[in-house]
Amino acid sequence: MPIFTRRVRALAVTLTAMATLAVPTPAQATTPVAPTGFVALSDVAPSILQDMRYATRHNFVGRRVDGYLAPLCILTRQAAEGLRKAEEQLKKQGYTLKVYDCYRPQRAVDHFVRWAKDLADEKMKAEFYPNVAKDRLFAEGYIAEKSGHSRGSTMDLTLVKLPPRPQRPYRPGEPLKPCFAPQDQRFPDNTADMGTGYDCFDPLAHTDNPAITGLPHENRLLLKNTMAAAGFRNLPEEWWHFTLNGEPFPDTYFDFPVSRGSLH
After folding, report:
1. Where in the sequence numbering do the catalytic residues fall?
2. pLDDT at 5
3. What is the pLDDT of residue 19?
């Protein structure tokens, strides 16, 4: 075979191999990533505490939720910078913030919907929805097929008195206490008393519920007013739920996983 012919064939083989390597695998082709503008909160406001419940089993589902590959708060940059401003003001009063959930992929919302339709699975009922029949979760607005969290500028959060007290980890299978029980009877986290625990499916979780008085009421107002001054609005049915005013993606529901690898 002439040398020229051999070289042409070798070049063709090399080009074919390179083309094969350039073709993404099915996983690469189908795993979405965050658009430019999403950040890890810890890179913007590292002193805000994180207790990312859906990456654990301590949530109303009772297992790690689909799409949460890491216990990481991801937000749009505007929302993260807004939280930093809120925390700066709270520190002057002896508090910091703790986030429970931030960006939430659509696949996680879909997981919630599947769970809510499985009426036989009530293993976390005693803590998170003691007084609500599971077949009423959709009708009463506790579960929905879309969530503002998936747009990247909504977060669930609370107050923590400085310096933060230690918090023991949740032990799967431990006895559950109602989310509206007195603070010293609920799961012993290190947060300020807000009248109920996080993700409490009960009217007592409504921000302005008149049954919540005294220090818990004052704490709710402190959180709500501080967040409002930083550019966030509260969801009246959930004292912990806030959305950035003028969010950059008001009509887009993202589905990239919660992980460092999803960020640019």
Report:
1. 238
2. 46
3. 41
Tallying the residues shown for the chain, one arrives at 264
Cα(238)–Cα(142) distance, integer angstroms: 10
Q: What is the pLDDT of residue 88?
A: 98
Model pLDDT, residue 29: 52
Distance separating alpha carbons of residues 211 and 254, to the nearest angstrom: 37
Q: Would you list the DSSP string of the chain?
A: --HHHHHHHHHHHHHHHHHHHHSPPHHHHH---PPTTEEEHHHH-TTSEE--GGGSS-SSSSSPPTTB-SS--EEEHHHHHHHHHHHHHHHTTTEEEEEEE----HHHHHHHHHHHH-TT--TTHHHH-TTS-GGGTTTTTSS-S--GGGGTSEEEEEEEESSPPP-PPP-TTPPP--TTS-GGGS---SS---SS-TT--SGGGSTT-TT--HHHHHHHHHHHHHHHHTTEEE-TT-TTEEEETT-S-TT------BSGGG--
Q: Which residues pair with 243 in a beta bridge?
A: 154, 233
- What pLDDT score was predicted for residue 12? 47
Query: Which amino acid is present at 14?
Result: T
CA distance 42 to 48: 7
Task: Give the pLDDT means over successive 10-residue stretches in the chain (264 positions).
Answer: 48 44 49 95 98 98 98 98 98 98 98 98 98 97 97 98 96 97 96 98 98 98 98 98 98 98 93
In angstroms, rounded to a whole number, what is the distance separating the alpha carbons of residues 207 and 241?
9
